[in-house]
UniProtKB/TrEMBL annotation:
Taxonomic lineage of the native organism: Eukaryota, Fungi, Dikarya, Basidiomycota, Agaricomycotina
A GO molecular-function annotation: DNA-directed DNA polymerase activity
GO biological process: DNA repair; DNA replication; error-free translesion synthesis; error-prone translesion synthesis
PANTHER family: DNA POLYMERASE KAPPA, DNA REPAIR POLYMERASE UMUC / TRANSFERASE FAMILY MEMBER
Segments forming domain UmuC: 112-291
Keywords: DNA damage, DNA repair, DNA replication, DNA-directed DNA polymerase, Magnesium, Metal-binding, Nucleotidyltransferase, Transferase
One Pfam family named in its UniProt record: IMS_C
GO cellular component terms given for this protein: nucleus
EC number(s) given by UniProt: 2.7.7.7
EC class name: transferase
Region (Disordered): 464-507, 523-592
Protein name: DNA polymerase kappa
Length: 694
DNA sequence: GCGGATCAC
DNA sequence: TATGGTGATCCGC
């Protein structure tokens, strides 16, 4: 007997993508209403470009991988003498125990605030040039880093190439980035935030997390009043508006700050039931760590909202490896980290530089680019007093395929550009000839020269070491002076964490438009190519799609522009007859899906998303039938072992399947609260590109 | 240790 | 005509 644990057929991929056109992924404030028309314009403008082709291929590979995963999502139940319902019941019981355990860890004692500047770059530009007021404008060149709210009404968004933005909004004004100004203004704003929490954590230049518990206590302030006061202060001192979310943890606060954007705030009730109600209809895309790929992955088994996590917990349990059950259960409960602390310098893991340019095939010119990058990296490494043991070269072909090549050393890598260039060249030369559009260098296995010096003997010794090192002591001293003047107390950047942290290039890196376009494209030949690609992975242990990059692959030499299309074509040729994947079926509610695959499940554990009250009763270990597993505590011990064995072997199969789509580590970490800790605590104390310009 | 992939900002 | 840069981590090898 076979039990289907996946529900791929119920959600046609093309529909999934098309739905995203106007779907919840595009919930940015100030968006235009007619998303369909916007997407048509974007698709029109993009069609035929290499970028578009590349994204199309990526989309197909994703679909194929998801499809493969779902095809492998069968569990052989013949080893069990019982019916599948027993298994499901047990799984749900197991998950319920997990939920109870998680619920017990919930901490509502801290007041966490996520602050987020509204259209930060655009607002700063507006500050400096009032004539822009009321006009639709974008910031950036080539690619927009942000758009004014007027421009957003036309569908102009961050990450959009300006030529497309102009098509959507012919009157669009485009102004250049002024990173220096953003850094400056950002510092002002962060200084204000720090009055409320000196330990606040800046997350990029336009947002941050604060714990205002203490401030509220000391000033006898309600959280809402405190945050309102803080926002007023920012407005008064900088003329900028900021939105904020108030919640018991960072994840919730982040989601809340989006609720009343722009220039608003939202406080979530500090109550378990209210939080779960809040999460139930929340799109999974809002969860930190769930990007475009994971969204699709989860949608493929019918999970679109955090509430769906609960109703699909049996599936998720069986496919824990793929989905990260623990993370998702926490998300469903609205549980996450509430630890707010500034990023630490020692947390840094790598430092690098990369540059995009119009495609170059000429070797000498490529090497010249490499040298530029090496120079930039030298600057940043010396500026931050970093070195490391591994150098990674990154290059992207004109087809937008990216590759990396790395080399490790037993000694510390010299920070001199000549040496960086030489190693980089060594890595690059065997790959040529190629037509490249990007080159980058990155150093990992870092060593913090400052910490080293400090622990050794303090400032004097540091001075001597600087003098002995192969870099200019004069230069180093000057840079250090700059940083100390900025308020830094030595190596720890707890004070200024943000100082050198140039913003991410964009306010948001989302560009779902392309997926949308590709979704439209899915109606034709692409979908039919999928089954073949999927089955091709079956024939040996290796999961290799025709289009997939091979591990350690050598990039195609001077790949003709059509090479990928050729691959598609050949893949189509071996494809089996069109499968059901793209067969549009009426899309019914998720729990219906669930029922159809888990006969009896609804009766046993309730396949529908439970009402909040019901959940609570469930979690409190009450008498709700859903929680009383008919198997647990009795004969299940034996079965449990078998069951686990089965799961293990399933997991092993999954692993050998080389699935490409996995949740990020932070969401799979056992025990620790989910957290975008990585993001939140991440400090980028040194050498951001923008800084090197001044 | 290396390379591909995903994600956040 | 034309689609970014920095950093982190996981997995399979």
């Amino acid at each position: 007997m076979w039990l289907r644990v996946a529900t791929s057929q119920t959600i046609p991929e093309s529909e999934t993508l098309v739905r995203r056109l106007a779907g919840p992924s595009t919930t940015k404030a100030g968006l235009a209403k007619d998303q369909t028309e916007i997407n048509r314009v974007i698709a029109e403008a993009s069609k035929g470009s290499k970028f578009y082709e590349a994204r199309t291929n990526i989309c197909m590979i994703s679909k194929a991988s998801i499809s493969e995963m779902l095809n492998k999502g069968w569990i052989n139940l013949s080893v069990f003498p019982f019916m599948d319902i027993v298994i499901i019941a047990h799984i749900c019981c197991h998950d319920t125990r997990k939920l109870v355990k998680l619920e017990a860890q919930r901490d509502l004692s801290q007041i966490i605030v996520h602050v987020d500047m509204d259209a930060f770059y655009a607002s700063v530009e507006l500050l400096d040039d009032p004539t822009l007021d009321g006009k639709p404008f974008g910031v950036g060149h080539g690619v927009l880093t942000t758009a004014s709210y007027e421009a957003r009404k036309f569908g102009v968004r961050s990450g959009m190439p300006s030529f497309i933005a102009k098509k959507l909004c012919p009157d669009l004004v485009v102004v250049a980035n002024n990173f220096h100004r953003y850094t400056e203004v950002s510092r002002q704003v962060m200084d204000i935030f720090r009055r409320y929490d000196p330990n606040m954590c800046a997350a990029g230049c336009d947002e941050g997390y604060l714990n205002i518990t203490r401030y509220c206590n000391e000033h006898q302030l309600a959280a809402n009043d405190c945050v309102q006061q803080m926002r007023d202060m920012v407005r008064a001192e900088t003329k900028l508006t900021v939105s904020a979310g108030i919640a018991p943890n960072k994840m919730l606060a982040k989601i809340c700050s989006d609720k009343n954007k722009p220039n608003g705030q939202f406080k979530l009730e500090f109550d378990s039931c209210a939080i779960k109600a809040f999460m139930r209809n929340m799109s999974i895309r809002k969860l930190p760590g769930v990007g475009r790929v994971n969204e699709r992955l989860l949608e493929s088994i019918g999970i679109k909202t955090c509430g769906d996590i609960y109703s699909h917990r049996a599936t998720l349990s069986l496919m824990d490896k793929q989905f990260g059950l623990n993370f998702l259960l926490q998300a469903y409960l609205g549980i996450a980290s509430n630890v707010v602390q500034p990023g630490q310098r020692e947390e840094r893991k790598s430092i690098g530089a990369e540059r995009t340019f119009s495609p170059i095939g000429d070797q000498a010119k490529i090497l010249a680019k490499l040298e530029e990058v090496a120079t930039e990296l030298e600057h940043d490494m010396e500026r931050g007093d970093w070195t490391g043991k591994t150098l990674t070269l990154k290059f992207k072909l004109d087809t937008y395929q990216a590759f990396t090549r790395a080399k490790s050393f037993t000694r510390w890598i010299s920070t001199k550009k000549e040496d960086l260039f030489m190693i980089g060249k060594e890595l690059l030369m065997p790959e040529l000839p190629l037509t490249l559009r990007l080159i980058g260098l990155r150093v990992t296995k870092l060593k913090d020269l400052r910490a080293d010096v400090q622990s050794a003997a303090g400032g004097i010794k540091r001075f001597f070491e600087s003098a002995q090192s192969n870099s200019s002591p004069r230069k180093k001293r000057r840079l250090n002076a700059d940083e100390e003047q900025a308020g830094d107390e030595g190596p720890s950047l707890t004070q200024d964490g943000f100082e050198d942290a140039m913003p991410g290039y964009h306010e948001h890196a989302d560009s779902d438009e392309l997926d949308a376009q590709i979704g439209q494209l899915d109606h034709s030949p692409l979908s039919s190519a999928l089954p073949g690609m999927t089955t091709s992975s079956e024939h040996d242990g290796q999961s290799q799609f025709s289009l997939q990059k091979q591990p350690h692959a050598r990039p195609p030499h001077s790949a003709p522009a059509s090479s990928q299309n050729t691959a598609v074509a050949s893949s189509s040729r071996v494809a089996k007859p069109v499968s059901t994947i793209s067969n549009p079926k009426p899309q019914s509610a998720c729990h219906t899906t669930s029922n159809s695959f888990y006969p009896g499940l609804a009766a046993t554990v309730g396949a529908e998303v439970p009402a909040v009250g019901a959940t609570d009763t469930a979690l409190s270990g009450g008498s709700v039938q859903a929680q009383t597993c008919p198997i647990c505590g009795k004969t299940i011990d034996v079965d449990n072992r078998e069951f686990n064995d089965t799961l293990t072997s399933v997991s092993a199969r999954k692993r050998s399947g080389k699935l490409k789509f996995l949740l990020p580590y932070s969401h799979r970490r056992e025990g620790t609260s989910l957290t975008h800790e990585r993001q939140l605590l991440k400090e980028r104390p040194e050498g951001i590109r923008g800084d090197t310009d001044f």
